Amino acid sequence: MEPEQVWSHEQYEPYIQEPLTPESLAAAEQELGVRLPFSLVALLMYRNGGPIRVTLPHDRDFDILHETIRGIGEKFPHLAKEAWWQWPDEDEGVPIPPDPHWLISFDGGGHWDLCLDYRHSPTDTTGLGIDPAVTVIDTERIEIEYPVAESFDAYLADLIVSPDEE
């Protein structure tokens, strides 16, 4: 899917990071401990985060309102290992998925996060995780995690134009 098909024409400035550079990408990947999928990097090079015009199909939307893809930068929200459920001391009793440090949230809405899931991914020669799946973590459900796609490319292929954007 081409970047102009993904990004909304609405440019909500607080969610759009500064333009992505090779240096900021490399620094983010080192900090996260992963290589971001090529197709995600291509999207972020076009526009570094913000509202999207596509969403998951209604029959596979996991009851989440997927409206943004986070970029790389300092503004909130951004790609980071900082979903609130990743910090067990913050809220006792909240279910936490196994190996939460390998889940990178790229959209979220309070109790749920849409994540790049590197928990079962191989690593490259530098030790960075590669080829993530996409998973929903929803702490308000009995089963807190739901597979969305086997890869970021498969996730992109499943997206449809949001009814708000038609």
Automatic annotation (TrEMBL):
<dbReference type="InterPro" id="IPR018958">
    <property type="entry name" value="Knr4/Smi1-like_dom"/>
</dbReference>
<protein>
    <submittedName>
        <fullName>SMI1/KNR4 family protein</fullName>
    </submittedName>
</protein>
<feature type="domain" description="Knr4/Smi1-like">
    <location>
        <begin position="19"/>
        <end position="158"/>
    </location>
</feature>
<dbReference type="InterPro" id="IPR037883">
    <property type="entry name" value="Knr4/Smi1-like_sf"/>
</dbReference>
<dbReference type="Pfam" id="PF09346">
    <property type="entry name" value="SMI1_KNR4"/>
</dbReference>
